[in-house]
Each structure stands twice: as C-alpha cells, then as structure tokens.
Request: fold
Amino acid sequence: MVLDDNDTKRYIIGSWLRRAGHTVVEAADGTEGLALLAGCPDGELPELAVVDVKLPDMSGFEVCEQIKADPRTASLPVIHISAHAIELSDRTQGLHRGADAYLTDPIAPDELLATVTAALRYARARRRAERLAARVAALNSSTLAVYGAKDGHTFAEAAATGAATLTRSPAVAVALSPDNRTLHVAAARTPGPGGAPPVKVFRSEPRLLDLLAGRALGDGTGTATALLSAAQWRALVCREDGAEADVFAGEVALVLARTKKGRPPVALAVDGGALAGVDARDLLSQLAQACALALEALRSRSEEHALVLTLQRTFLPDRLPEVPDVDLAVRYEPAADDSEIGGDFYEVIETPAGLLLAIGDVAGHSLQAAMIMGEVRHALRAYAIEGHDPRTLLDRLDALLTRLRPAITVTVCLVLVEPGGRRIQVANAGHIPPLLRHPDGSTRYLTEHGPLLGLNVRHPAGTAHDVPEGSTLLLLTDGLIEVPGVDLGNSLAALETTLAGAPGEIEDLCDLLLERYGREKTDDIALLAARLGRTAG
Reply:
C-alpha cells in the first residue's frame, strides 16, 4: 500500500514497485489508508505500507501508530518517506513511533526496492514463525486431547478436531475402538475463527481402515501419506453409511500411522491444499503419530482392564446356593475408570444354623487388596461351615487379620438368616448397615455395629430381628451411594426412599439401584438382596 497525498509522487513510487513485481494499492490520505486496511479481509491485507510523513488530515507518524495498535495489522511493516521531515530528530521520531524504515527524498529506485525487499523478508519470516508457533501450540493441545480420550468415540472426535484445527481445513479421523470391535469415523468441518469445528462421529465397517491402509501404509509402521482425488475419497469412505465424511471439495491428503506391527492404524484426512508447506506436512504427521501412540495406550489399558476384571471376578462366588424360604440376587460392578482390582466382596454360605449372608470391603484398590479379600472370603467360609455364630466369625476373622495382615482393615456385615426366613441375626464390623423393607413398604436400617476388622478389638454379640414374611433385605458396599462432597447420611436417606418405592422383584430392584446410583462411580459396587420368608422359585 502506498499512502501519499501527492499524486505524482504516489504514481512514481507505485510504478517502481509494480515493475519490481509487487501489487500496489494506493490511498491519498491517512483516513483513506486506514479505511482501506480496515475493509480488507484478513487473508488479503497488504504486506507492507509506504507512508508519507506529511499528510493533509494527520501525520504519517499517527497513521503508523494506528496501524501498529490494531492486532490485525500490528505486524505490517511501515516505511516512512518524507521530503520535508528529514532531520535526525524526524527519523528518530518515526522509528520510535513504529516505523520499520525511514527514507528521505530524493530516493533512488534501487534504495526503495532494497528497503522494501528487506522489510518484506523480515515480515514474512516473522509471520511464518508466528504461524508455526500457533500450529505447534495446536499440535500440543490436540495431542493432550487424544491422550485424554476415554473411548473410541471421544478419541476419533478429538483426532478429527485436532487435524482440522492444525491445518485450518476440513478433516476426517478413522480409528478402530480400543476393543477392536467398532470403527469410528469423525468428520470435522473447517474451524471458524477462535472456535472448535463442528464434528460428527459415526460408525462404519472395520474393513474401511484396511482399504485406507492399502493406499499408503500397508502393513508397515510409522507414518505414510497419500493423495486421493475427491472421487477416490468418496468411493472409499462416503458411501451410504458414510455420507457425513464428504467434507472435501477437491484433492484429499491421507495420513496413516501405526506404532506396532499387527495393530490397526489410525487414519487422518485433510484437504490436499492444506499440506502445501513442509511445516504443515510434518505437523500433521506428528499428530497422526501421537494419535497412534495414544490409541495404543488406550488399547493396552482396555486390554489390561478386561484382564483385571476377569481376575477380579474369579475371587467372587461363581454361583449362589438355592435354599427354600430365601430368594437371592447379587450385582458386582467395578469402578468406571479404575484398572486396579478392588477389595469389595459378597458371600452366601449354607451353615448348620441357617443361610449366612456376608458383604465386605478391604481398604484400598490394589492386587494386595484383592488377595486379602480372597483370604477373608475363604476364611469366612471355613469358619462358617464349622457352625460358629456371627459374632464368633467376626472375632476369628479379626484375629486372622491382626496376625497375618497387621496393617490392613476390613469392613464386614454378616446376616444369618435362620431356617424359615422369619428371623435374622446381624453382626456388623464397621460396614454400611443393612437396609430392611417390610412387606407394607416401610423401611429401616439395622444400625447395630461394632469395630472394623483388623483392630484386635472384641466384637459385640449379634442382634436378632424378627422379620415378616416377604421382607426384603439389602446389603451393599459404600461404592453404591458414596459421592465425594455429599454427606453419607443424605445418601443413606435417599437410598432408603428409593427402596421404599422400588419394584417387588429383587432382580428388578438391583437393576434399579445400579441404574440410579451406580453410574460413573469411582469405587467398586457390591450389592446383595434377599427376599425372606417366601419359598424360592
């Protein structure tokens, strides 16, 4: 942009610049020049301004200050030219007020062109560095997002969002879920200024990933890039079940990444023109590699979690005894995001004195907690079969723990259902109290309790309760109702209200409780329900 009120001078400078290959726009005063800049779209702003110091409406110094104060034009180089303000103080003032160079008339064409070339070289290098820094920041945030994904859906969404943000183009991510069962395809539109792009995630056939890998990576590891025509992309991806992926108008750049042999790759696709520069290609390849590593970590965690759950369930009873006068239902749900083994357990044992119901929790989440849980369960079975009463069972378990596991505490609640199901004995070692619902719908907690196991303290005798036929007894671990920041008493009251209005069938009751209280919990949940005094089956 050439800004000068002298028509002849403006024409001469513009001619020199045009002959050197530059495109020139002209303005006759400061107001016109600033309006021209304000009306230009971001991608069409001039790269440099040649500004006369003496203008009719404002000084060139003021024009320069306003250019530098606007974030859109702050990096625009300004070259001052003057035939009047030629003193050292004038040049110093111009540079102090934002000019990148100061020339005085008469000016030789070569001097002007050399100054313009130097200013443009610096400005272009600066803009490239700023764009690269912004893209590296986008790469970092996108990498954090894919590593923070919890499942295949959120992973594909984060990958597509990251690719679109990084390249400022539409993007599609294709990835197989961590359990290798579902192929997720996420399509992101071009992001708007300052906002995340809209993303749609849908499912497709797993063979699509093999077809895409066949275009570039094959069975190899690392990253590979291929260019597809719009027609090829639509034929591969945008069939009836993938119309949402039709987001590209022209050539498509496809990047695939795999970290381990034999593992499914991750595919990212962007507009082919978005990878015109080396920086864009390298950064998108880095994002694809980060996606592959993140998905591999997610896949390994999923496999570990499945193995942990299998191991955890081996420590629990594989079946419940069938006895007259008592109907039973159990549920066990591991913590939503915990790959470690917990210490929650339940047990149902036929004894000479009746049916013993037990529920408990070993402190902590670890393999050790699970092993101790197994030890306590097996010891409880052995002592119960000998015919000991609930209080004696707790004393013996406490003695076992204090001798063999002195640093461990365990909560256990025992309920002995006497034959006929009309009378129970409760002995509670620091556990959530059992909840009883009478046939008329009234409820109450059986609150008698003693100290935790592992403290080497004698336990009080069990408490007997007569129960009407058809009563429901509920035993649970705190994972069902405990919520961080919520008073446990309030949670217990809410559970009591729920039980009062819950379905009569205990299987339906357990399902309701898990649906209402068991979602996204950070602790394991064990639940044991018994219908008393009614013949099973």
